[in-house]
Amino acid sequence: MGTESENKSVLKDGFLVKRGHVVHNWKVRWFVLKQDRLMYYKYEGGKRDSRHRGTIPLNNCTITCPYLEYENRPLVLRLQTSTSEEHFLEACTREERDEWAAAIGKAVQKLNPQDTQTPSQTQDKGSKSLQLHNVNLSQVVDSMYDVHTGIRLGNLVEQGSIYTNCFSGSAVVDWIVFNKLALTRVEAVTLSSALLDEGSLRPVGVRSADALRNAALGEQFLDDSTALYCFSQSLQKKGSVKAEKTVSAVELSGKVVKRGYLLKQGHKVKNWKVRLFVLRAEPAFLHYYDPSKDDITPVGSIALRGCLVSALDDNGIPSGVKGKVQGNLFKIITQADTHYYIQAPTDEERMDWIKAIRQVV
User: Fold this and answer.
1) What is the pLDDT of residues 101-126, one digit of tens each?
2) Helix, strand, coil % (nearest 5) of the chain?
3) CA-to-CA distance for 8 and 135, rounded, in angstroms?
4) What is the pLDDT of residues 273-313, one digit of tens each?
5) Lower CB density within 10 Å: C or N end of the chain?
6) 54 vs 177: CA distance, rounded Å
7) Strand ranges (DSSP E) for the chain?
8) Residue 348, class by beta-carbon neighbours within 10 Å (0-12 exposed, 13-18 middle, 19+ buried)?
9) Rounded to an integer, what distance in angstroms lies between the CA atom of residue 253 and that of residue 316?
10) At what angle do helices 169-178 and 185-198 cross, to 10 degrees?
């Protein structure tokens, strides 16, 4: 534990997935934002290492958010230091990514108050969804991609060419308005443009691609039956799993309620690993993914129907928990009497997860 003064100097902390410098693999690290630097730590055995693994200096640092060069990782932001060193960080949700970008941008601006171009302006540039309040783009995409109630995919023709598994711009706007995600078609176009900015949708065919290139001249998303779009390749991969008539397809069709990084104790080897957890309702499942890979194929799932979820006592090590793990633990007991032990980064997050799980059961 640090001193009280050290804790006060922390502006933000939490899990992010970081791309390696030498080997470009992705690993979960615990990040701590201070006034002039961003430090990161390994998190092993349910505990944060006492020694930090690296430091990113923030003086004259520039932020690109969203950073959309990674097709299967739409939640990445990029930091470029004053020495042109690049760092790529991935959050678990769009909201969390934007919060990190804003917090880092604010710290950079305080270090360089003379700068007129601030990192937060880079962030706003790609976030048309700021015009839409309380909209979760991840949930919109999941709903749009739903096997049963989502937008209908088809083979459409434009200028003599056939495009498979796509839909028109007007079909997207129709679907958004029908599902009451926007009150007007103008709002629906704004929301669709945000999905395009985020890389969840991409243009196909000549007309929509031209509109994207000419985005500076007006709306980049076209509410038009002749402008064609499709889902990103990462979602199409996800679709190949959903298309199979298997139990997993049913599990993954549920509405996404909550996403976040949590630590989970293994069943056979009782070690603790950071996992990206996705809570879905109707049907109620808690899927967990290896964040160093992707969020397309879960490494495991917990059937929540009839389950019991409860916080564990923070005093001492509860029964069933291995290692020197203390604090912010909760347990899920399924109908099949399988016990899952999970650790949240903070008590507030632990209670948020317990509440969310109880609401979908």
Assistant:
1) 999 999 999 988 776 444 443 443 33
2) 30, 30, 40
3) 32
4) 999 999 999 889 999 988 888 666 788 899 999 999 999 98
5) N
6) 47
7) 12-19, 26-33, 37-41, 43-44, 47-48, 54-57, 62-67, 76-80, 86-90, 154-158, 161-168, 201-204, 228-231, 255-265, 272-281, 285-289, 300-303, 308-311, 329-333, 339-343
8) exposed
9) 39
10) 120
Neighbour count for residue 306 (Cβ, 10 Å) = 11
- The amino acid present at 179, given as its one-letter code, is N
Kindly calculate the radius of gyration of the chain based on its CA atoms and give it in whole angstroms. 22
Q: How far apart are CA 336 and CA 302, in angstroms?
A: 10
Closest CA to 18 of 88, 122, 104, 96: 88
The single-letter code of the amino acid at 130 is L
Give the burial string for 152-177 (b: 16+ CB within 10 Å, else e): ebeebebeeeebeebbbbbbbbbbbb
- C-alpha of 271 from chain center: 25
296 φψ region: left (φ > 0), alpha (ψ -120 to 50), beta (else): alpha
CA-based nearest residue to 88, from 76, 98, 100: 76
Two structure tokens written together for 34: 């201070």
Rounded to whole angstroms, the Cα distance separating 132 from 178 reads 17
- Cα 4 versus chain centre, distance: 31
Q: How far apart are alpha carbons 40 and 79 in whole angstroms?
A: 14
CB atoms under 10 Å from CB of 315, counted, come to 8
What is the sign, positive or negative, of the torsion defined by CA atoms of 86, 102, 65, 253? positive
